[in-house]
Specification:
The chain is α/β, with parallel strands linked by helices and 447 residues long. It has three domains: 4-142, HUPs (Rossmann fold, 3-Layer(aba) Sandwich), CATH 3.40.50.620; 144-179 and 219-299, Serine Threonine Protein Phosphatase 5, Tetratricopeptide repeat (Alpha Horseshoe), CATH 1.25.40.80; 305-444, DNA Cyclobutane Dipyrimidine Photolyase, subunit A, domain 3, CATH 1.10.579.10. 50% of the residues lie in helices and 6% in strands. The chain has 20 helices and six strands. Strands 1-6-5-2-3-4 form a six-stranded mixed β-sheet, with helices on both faces. β2, α1 (34-46) and β3 (50-56) form a beta-alpha-beta unit. The chain is globular. The N and C termini lie far apart (58 Å).
Length: 447
């Protein structure tokens, strides 16, 4: 049965008679995929074939070999799993809405189902296609446990305003996820299978950032990572999640970001485990993560200073011309060549491993604000470095974390300091009270 509460019509068109098309984008998996399930249910009702299309664009928001390789190797596994269900997956190269519309016209598709995504570029893709299409395009939110458009119709001030809204709806939406089945109405045209290696070879992308070969992509690897966390990490999460040396965080962000693991599946499994750590972990997984989607959906300037609340922009403006003890260009930040061993170690962790521990990512971003000539430059540098090196870059969580650190988004005014004004401040000395800074620097600092 279709859950219509997760769907949102992007246009008002009459349904065609052709096959159903699922435009896979944010949710790159077969299991636990509300959008794919919704598309199959419509196809079964109409007794038509079900197709899946992924539109592949070069240079997506600064992504490079590191991110494309993880994504495409996972997508190759999706193709293999869908083939077992008699559902073809095709990859279209070029401008996404243009190629999607061309394919729809050529194949006589009757309806398109797409993923919900709050980022500007994805909203542009979906809305452009919906405006030009002669058939319905339906968006399904398979990423948020409580669909973003239902949770709140406006930009929330912070977790304290969104949390009660989510809690009222959780029992309704945190349910077992229906699965797709073998499709009984096959697509009879030949479909050429693609390979990740061939696609990577043909892409015009930055290859200077190395692929992370020690982290396996795909649904199976994401499920294994979740199982490992539940087995050995969840019980330590509440006490040690903020310690970068404790390995107490879930480490699930790469699979969650690329849609290879469903947040709802993670929430269901953690809730079943229970224990002291379940509540703080679910706070991050549900409230904080869905707050990020709310922010990016309702604030299109999520990656610029304009996203900051009035009080934060005012205080940063008042301190715009404060003397900086240090002022570094992008290149020096990128090379982890500041005066601060802790910041340099965090940047090296990002470059080498594709991630920074969550607590240190806040410190990392705030120091960029402290050591650049303007808040605008700080935003630009933080976003560029995160998108270039983080495997989970170009994500609402990343943009929101930077906006919180630099622009006071979802935060409040604190004590006044030079450069920061009343934006919350963090220091290396404060970090020493939280964890073994010397040990962290030894782990990630220069040899």
């Amino acid at each position: 049965m279709i859950d219509a509460r997760r769907s949102h019509a992007l246009n008002d068109r009459r349904t065609g008679n052709g096959p159903l098309l699922y435009w896979m984008s944010r949710e790159q998996r077969v299991a636990d995929n509300w959008g794919l399930y919704h598309a199959q249910q419509l196809a079964l009702q109409r007794k038509v074939p079900l197709l899946v299309v992924f539109t592949l664009a070069d240079g997506f928001l600064g992504a490079n070999l590191r991110q494309y390789a993880f994504m495409l190797r996972g997508l190759e596994q999706v193709r293999q799993r869908l083939a077992e269900l008699a559902i073809p997956l095709l990859v279209l190269r070029g401008d996404p809405p243009t190629e999607l519309l061309r394919f729809v016209t050529q194949t006589g598709v009757g309806t398109v189902v797409c993923d919900f995504d709050p980022l500007r570029i994805k909203r542009h893709w979906f809305e452009t296609a919906a405006a030009a299409a002669s058939i319905p395009i339906i968006e399904v939110d398979g990423h948020n446990i409580v669909p973003c458009r239902i949770a709140s119709p406006k930009r929330e001030f912070g977790a304290y305003t969104l949390r009660p809204k989510l809690k009222r709806l959780l029992t309704e939406f945190l349910v077992e996820i229906p699965q797709v089945v073998r499709h009984p109405f096959p697509w009879l045209r030949a479909v050429e299978p693609f390979s990740a290696e061939a696609l990577l070879a043909g892409l015009a992308l930055d290859r200077s950032v190395a692929e992370l070969t020690d982290l396996a992509p795909g649904e199976a690897a994401g499920a294994e990572a979740l199982a490992a966390f539940l087995e050995g990490g969840l019980e330590r999460y509440a006490a040690s999640a903020n310690d970068p040396l404790a390995a107490a965080q879930s480490g699930l962000s790469p699979w969650l970001h690329f849609g290879q693991l469903a947040p709802q599946r993670v929430a269901l499994q953690v809730a079943r485990c229970g224990g002291m750590a379940a509540e703080p972990f679910l706070e991050q997984l549900i409230v904080r993560r869905e707050l990020s989607d709310n922010f990016c959906l309702h604030c299109p300037d999520y990656d610029r200073l304009d996203c900051a609340p009035d009080w934060a922009r005012s205080t940063l403006e008042q301190h715009r011309h404060d003397p900086r003890s240090y002022c570094y260009p992008l290149e020096q930040f990128e090379q982890a060549a500041t005066h601060d061993p802790l910041w340099n170690a965090a940047q090296r962790q990002l470059v080498i491993s594709g991630k920074i521990h969550g607590y240190l990512r806040m410190y990392w971003a705030k120091k960029i604000l402290e050591w650049t000539a303007s808040p605008e430059e700080a935003f630009a540098i933080a976003v560029q470095l995160n998108n270039r090196y983080a495997l989970d870059g170009r994500d609402p969580n990343g943009y929101t974390g930077i906006a919180w650190s630099l622009g006071g988004v979802h935060d409040r005014a604190w004590g006044r300091r030079p450069v920061f004004g009343t934006i919350r401040f963090m220091s290396a000395e404060g970090c020493k009270r939280k964890f073994d800074v010397a040990g962290y620097v030894k782990r990630w600092g220069r040899d």
